[in-house]
């Protein structure tokens, strides 16, 4: 251990107290032993340090900071170096605001386009997500503070996120949902990692020894601190035993007593406590001096310029019929769409940044060189029909050479705590598009959305530009792209399905019950579409440019591939070269091909460059559930080089030595997984892949029953609580403005009451509520009252001892 002298100065109670937060975003300090407190803050795309009363959902205002493009946006740059620049700037702002741990980046694999938090995550592909996230971590930590990649692991939906059980086979876990985290740990050495709310195969992630000990610490060599998601601790003692360092936010004295009791009973040892404390102290001492010595200011203008460049380099040109773009100087443009005036530039929830400044298309127009014939809102942002607004927009369109129509998803469609109900853009926006096309066919649609949408309407516009969620400078970046100041080079980091019904997890995402079955296995995103032969609207890795590129002279070995890329157009541009590995004759079933490398190359018109892409230890491996190890199937592999997963330009064949491992699927009937057609996998085949029976999915009356499940209780009082929450939530949906606070409470398990109330509620009180829910009405209420009195007294005594010892 690194901090034995400090640990030796502390008694067991003091040690246990340090392993949980003092406030919503602060740790406990102990000055007598030389242990300072540090501050943690949300930060996937900017610092969210709240100025007043803190809350984990971002409902109260925070200190102004630069709002950089969200992860869904920057991922489309396919540029880890750009991610590192953004991370460095965010880390600088964090240190300036005295923040020691920045809670990001988020890199969960995008299993479904409906996940309400997809805007915070990079990709459906773990290799791309891992490389981008590693860049962010290196940048953040270059300031001496800590990055905190999240959420570890298999956290793919918001519905019942604090009590759902992600059920999946070990191979899928390792290859799809953990590889990104593995890359981050090995390539950027984050000082912290945040555990996820959910269970993974029946055990909460925060106390899951397989995740935290076997994989994270033993297999990957992680030596940092594991921080719970806010309220994400279930059994604090088991968390400490199995590798969870710091419980947040501020569970109060009950958490301290839980550890003391666990040590005394032998459930855990004092050595377990010391090991976690050593990790925490290392984090504190590694970051405290950096924060104290950092300037309290930063160059906001430079960061705004970086945010603009990052958004521009991440913009994806999806359609450009008749080369309508770029727009020439002096073009008469009708600007239509509410988003042109009030941009949609970030997601909702704990990632929401109080932006220093916010650009809009209308506000930046003067610098564009384009002539604006007028602006019309065109539609109601929340989707309500408005004939007058539509008529105004149609009239304006007739006066212009080109119509610039700003479409997108409104703020409440994408938020932490709430999954999307569909992949659709509001129908009033599509109706407006069709009406505009009738009077002016030269329509450029600028789309603002944090995840993929259905685009059957795209045949009504000549150009489609995806700006994702571009941050505070996204509007200026978009004008740079539209006018050709920046040649778009972004490529999609996720597949865009034609319809939600085409997606592989459609029947197993965010459904009823606590169990979330990952029946699609390995076949997430393009791995499914290409293997099953389902055509997407826009494939993974797709993006157009104002110039063209030619690929030639490929050479490949098992260690890497090289080729020549030539800019065959008449303007400078950047191309993202993508390397996919395929084994058509594989005996171990696998996706048709998988991304295993990429490189971004900048080329002047007519210029050629030799590009080399290394193939690392992840290029040919698969997880073998029989040997419980990474193995390689020997033989011939195709190294496919392309401009997207569907636009393969060059192919080479390499021979790779295998490890000789046995086939774990020998003699097993897995036709859906062999062919990749996994939308309707039968129970028996799913159990064969899983290696065990499908877990039971009945609601249980226990500490992990959610408030939204209290209608299953046996208590009129609990029924009333459920009815009030259900009524409030339903009413907010009818208004088109879902109440995120109520949504969080509705999906919150009872035990979170003891984790999220700063010690006001103890787990003993929760147990009283459970008794009430089970039908022991009088006994339950009496227990709640007695435990409340006991908790108040014990908390006061504890805080007195900690102050005076």
Quick summary:
The protein is an alpha/beta fold. Helix content is 33%, strand content 16%.
Descriptive terms for the model:
Immunoglobulin-like; about 800 residues; four-stranded mixed β-sheet; TIM Barrel; six-stranded mixed β-sheet; alpha/beta; 4 domains; 24 strands; globular
If you had to describe this structure to a student in words, what would you say it looks like?
This protein has 805 residues and is of the alpha/beta class. The protein folds into four domains: 7-37 and 147-161 and 193-293, TIM Barrel; 304-517, Rossmann fold, CATH 3.40.50.1700; 547-690, Sandwich (Immunoglobulin-like); 707-804, no CATH class. The protein is built from 23 helices and 24 strands. The strands form seven sheets. Strands 9-14-13-12-10-11 form a six-stranded mixed β-sheet. It has a four-stranded mixed β-sheet with strand order 7-6-4-15, with no helix packed on it. It has a four-stranded antiparallel β-sheet with strand order 19-18-23-24, with no helix packed on it. Strand 2 (101-103), helix 5 and strand 3 form a beta-alpha-beta unit. The chain is globular, with a radius of gyration of 27 Å.
CATH architectural name of the largest domain? 3-Layer(aba) Sandwich
- CATH homologous superfamily (4th level) name of the largest domain: Glycoside hydrolase family 3 C-terminal domain
> Radius of gyration from the CA trace?
27 Å
Quantity of strands, as a count: 24
Biggest sheet, spatial arrangement of strands: 9-14-13-12-10-11
| Weakly predicted, low-confidence segments | none
Shape: globular
Measured by DSSP, the beta-strand proportion falls in 15-25%
Amino-to-carboxy terminus distance: 24 Å
In the residues, how many domains can be counted?
Answer: 4
Residue share in helix: 25-40%
The class by helix and strand makeup works out as alpha/beta
Summed over residues and divided by their number, the pLDDT gives a mean of 96
């Amino acid at each position: 251990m690194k901090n034995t002298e400090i640990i030796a100065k502390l008694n067991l109670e003091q040690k246990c107290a340090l392993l949980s937060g003092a406030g919503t975003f602060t740790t406990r300090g102990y000055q007598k032993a030389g242990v300072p407190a540090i501050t943690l803050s949300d930060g996937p795309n900017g610092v969210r340090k709240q100025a007043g009363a803190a809350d984990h959902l971002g409902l109260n205002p925070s200190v102004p900071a630069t709002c950089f493009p969200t992860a869904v946006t920057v991922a489309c740059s396919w540029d880890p170096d750009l991610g590192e620049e953004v991370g460095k700037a965010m880390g600088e702002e964090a240190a300036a605001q005295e923040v020691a741990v920045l809670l990001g980046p988020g890199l969960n694999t995008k299993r479904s386009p409906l996940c309400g938090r997809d805007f915070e995550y990079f990709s459906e592909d773990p290799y791309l997500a891992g490389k981008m996230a590693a860049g962010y971590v290196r940048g953040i930590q270059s300031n001496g503070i800590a990055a905190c990649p999240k959420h570890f692991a298999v956290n793919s939906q918001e519905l019942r996120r604090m009590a759902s059980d992600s059920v999946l086979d070990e191979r899928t876990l390792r290859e799809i949902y953990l590889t990104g985290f593995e890359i981050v740990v090995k390539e950027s050495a984050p000082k912290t990692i945040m555990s996820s709310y959910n269970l993974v195969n029946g055990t909460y992630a925060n106390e899951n020894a397989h995740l935290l000990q076997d994989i994270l610490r033993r297999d990957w060599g992680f030596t940092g601190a594991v921080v719970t998601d806010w309220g994400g601790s279930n059994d604090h003692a088991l968390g400490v035993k199995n590798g969870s360092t710091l419980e947040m936010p501020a569970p109060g004295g009950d958490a301290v007593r839980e550890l003391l009791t666990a040590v005394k009973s032998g459930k855990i040892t004092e050595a377990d406590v010391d090991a976690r404390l050593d990790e925490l102290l290392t984090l504190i001492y590694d970051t405290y001096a950096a924060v104290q010595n950092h300037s309290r200011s930063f160059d906001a203008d430079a960061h705004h310029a970086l945010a603009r460049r990052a958004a521009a380099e991440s913009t994806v040109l999806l359609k450009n019929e008749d080369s309508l773009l770029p727009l020439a100087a002096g073009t008469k443009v009708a600007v239509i769409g509410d988003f042109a005036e009030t941009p949609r530039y970030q997601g909702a929830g704990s990632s929401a940044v109080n932006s220093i400044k916010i650009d809009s298309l209308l506000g930046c127009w003067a610098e564009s060189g384009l002539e604006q014939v007028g602006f019309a809102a065109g539609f109601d942002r929340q989707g309500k029909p408005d004939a007058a607004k539509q008529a105004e927009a149609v009239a304006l369109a007739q006066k212009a050479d080109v119509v610039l129509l700003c479409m997108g998803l409104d703020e409440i469609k994408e938020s932490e705590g709430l999954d999307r109900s569909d992949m659709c853009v509001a129908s009033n926006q599509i109706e407006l598009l069709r009406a505009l096309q009738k009077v002016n066919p030269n329509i450029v649609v600028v789309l603002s959305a944090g995840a993929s949408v259905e685009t059957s309407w795209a045949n009504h516009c000549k150009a489609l530009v995806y700006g994702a969620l571009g941050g505070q400078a996204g509007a200026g970046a978009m004008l740079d792209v539209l006018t050709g100041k920046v040649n778009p080079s972004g490529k999609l980091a996720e597949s865009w399905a034609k319809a939600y019904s085409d997606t592989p997890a459609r029947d197993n995402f965010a459904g009823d019950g606590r169990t979330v079955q990952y029946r699609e296995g390995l076949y997430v995103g393009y791995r499914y579409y290409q293997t099953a032969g389902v055509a997407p609207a826009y494939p993974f890795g797709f993006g157009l440019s104002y110039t063209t590129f030619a690929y030639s002279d490929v050479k490949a070995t098992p260690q890497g591939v090289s080729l020549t890329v030539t800019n065959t157009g008449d303007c400078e541009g950047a191309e993202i070269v993508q390397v996919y590995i395929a084994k058509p004759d594989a005996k171990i079933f696998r996706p048709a091909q998988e991304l295993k490398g990429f490189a971004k190359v900048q080329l002047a018109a007519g210029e050629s460059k030799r590009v080399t892409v290394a193939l690392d230890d992840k290029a040919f491996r698969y997880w073998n559930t029989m040997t419980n190890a990474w193995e390689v199937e020997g033989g011939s592999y195709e190294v496919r080089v392309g401009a997207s997963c569907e636009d393969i330009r060059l192919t080479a064949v390499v021979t790779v030595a295998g490890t000789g491992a046995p086939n774990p699927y020998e003699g097993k009937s897995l036709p859906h997984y062999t062919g990749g057609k996994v939308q309707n996998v039968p129970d028996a085949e799913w159990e064969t892949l899983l290696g065990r029976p499908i877990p039971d999915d009945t609601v249980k009356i226990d500490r992990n029953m959610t408030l939204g499940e209290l209608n299953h209780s046996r208590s009129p009082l609990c029924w009333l609580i459920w009815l009030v929450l259900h009524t409030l939530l339903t009413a907010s949906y009818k208004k088109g403005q879902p109440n995120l606070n109520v949504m969080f409470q509705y999906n919150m398990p009872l035990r979170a009451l003891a984790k999220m109330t700063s010690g006001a509620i103890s787990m003993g009180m929760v147990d009283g509520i459970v008794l009430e829910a089970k039908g022991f009405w009088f006994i339950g209420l009496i227990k709640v009252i007695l435990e409340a009195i006991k908790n108040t007294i014990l908390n006061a005594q504890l805080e007195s001892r900690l102050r005076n010892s």
